[in-house]
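Side project, low priority. Logging it here so it doesn't get lost.
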Amino acid sequence: MASDGGQGLHCESRGGRMRSGDNRALIVSTSPISRIVIARTAEGVYLRPDAVPPEAAVRALRTSDPRMVIIEAAASDDSLKPLMSELALRRRERQMPRVVLITDAMTHRDMPPMEGLFDAVVPKPVTPDTLQPVLERLSRL
């Protein structure tokens, strides 16, 4: 995936907004193919993707401190609960990256209420044409 050229850039939050010095994006999906498609789309808007399965998501979130988190959720995916809890905690502490949820309509209704946790919801099937404008808009905020 994309590299920072060994610069070791770090992202800091001030008043809930991310500084523009770091463009890391954490991509979470159970599907390796979806992780690749989403990562390539993120690279197209100059984000540096780190794609992981749900089991590795909390650790990756804590170690990489990404500017954006992109989650592809399946119906009743219990493996995302720890990640959602960590993101909710960060939102309360104002150390929150932008969060994009990729889901189908049925899954979104089935998910527990996470009011204010997602900055955008993108419907499945995800394609670069549907995801890229959302990522561009959120990366400018």
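Brief comment: The two ends are 24 Å apart (CA to CA).
Revisit when time allows.
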